[in-house]
Amino acid sequence: MRARQPSAVPAVDTHTVATLDARSAVASPRRGGGDPFAPAAPPLRKRAWFQRLTVWGGMLVIWQLFAMSVGPYFFPSVPEVASGFVQMVQDGIPLVVLGSFTQMLAGFAAAVLVGVPLGLLMGQFKMVDFVVGPFVNALFVTSLAALLPFLILIFGTEFMFRAAVVFLFAVFYLIITPAAGVRAIDRGLSEMATSFGARHSKRFSAITLPGTLPYIITGMRLGLGQAVQGMIVAELWVSVATGRILQTMGLARNLGEFFAVAATVVVVGALLTGLLMWVQKRLTPWAGDVEQAVAGAR
User: Fold this and answer.
1) CA pair distance 281, 218, nearest whole angstrom
2) Interacting residues of 279 by C-beta distance below 8 A, sequence separation 6+
3) What are the phi and psi torsion angles at 71 (to 5°)?
4) Which of 60, 174, 193, 220 could in theory staple to 198 by disulfide, Cβ–Cβ 3.0 to 4.6 A?
5) What is the residue extent of each domain of the chain?
6) 148 backbone dihedrals φ, ψ, rounded to 5°
């Protein structure tokens, strides 16, 4: 009986094995699996949170160095502002700031209720634009602070005066921006709807309102910033609420707490603006930023 010969083992190409191992290492750079086609993580210096931390940290360092160079009488240091926040909370000033913003929202709501419909009418009808447009443009470029004594004579120095100032500061953005949105709508859409027998109300709800909604919300964002400015200006003029607190702290050179109160007003205003931006992205995801188009209309 013949002994069984062992089978021949095929020769292995070492170059091929090395190439396959290199490709496997490139395809799976991380241990434990994972998507081999996932993009590599960006370096630390290109990440948004690191860039923001670097910028804000650098600004705080510059702030502290500048405060140390000029002295606390002219500019507060970072620890003084931090202690000012603590003292502000203990004194109950955030409730005063909240009350100021509540009154500001009343004037801003009146500006929305008046400005948006008027802006839509100006953009839709040439006759309304011909009659109202010159007055709107004239008051838009007028220094509203020059009108405050006249408003005091009409409304006094109480709530109505402050609401009227906020209204005037915000309403022009809420008029001009929707009007620009109506003019930006393609006329072919309205003509097509008219040819199919659509009524004016149907054209407004199906074409005009969706087309101008991004402009309306952008106008609210711009008007809100002006409303916060009008709130502070009105309160400084009659020395009440947040304006009186800022005026008293400034005269007493209590700059740490002064900057803390001012920063609180800025943060609340920024949160309200961010809320409007979130609403705009939710309601009009198809629309980009329309502020450049609005700048051309102004």
Assistant:
1) 11
2) 217
3) 95, 160
4) 193
5) 78-297
6) -65, -40
Q: In the chain, count of helices (H) and strands (E)?
A: 13, 0
- Give the model confidence (pLDDT) of 35-71 as tens digits: 555 567 777 777 777 788 888 889 989 988 998 998 8
Which segments of the chain are extended strands (E)? Answer: none
Q: Which two tokens stand for residue 11?
A: 């020769």
Predicted TM-score of the model (pTM) = 0.74
CA distance 215 to 202: 20
Burial of 242 (0-12, 13-18, 19+ CB in 10 A): buried
DSSP label of 125: -
CB neighbour class for 291 (10 Å; exposed up to 12, middle 13-18, buried from 19) = middle
- Residues 192-236 have pLDDT tens digits of 776 766 677 677 767 777 788 889 998 999 999 999 999 999 999
Pick the CATH number of 78-297 from 3.40.50.2300, 1.10.600.10, 1.10.3720.10, 3.30.310.50: 1.10.3720.10
CA-CA distances (angstroms) from residue 256 to 169, 178, 267?
29, 41, 16
Tokens at 185, concatenated: 């709508």
Count Cβ atoms below 10 Å from residue 94 Cβ, excluding itself.
14
Question: For residues 101-117, b (16+ Cβ closer than 10 Å) or e, as one string?
Answer: bebbbbbbebbbeebbe
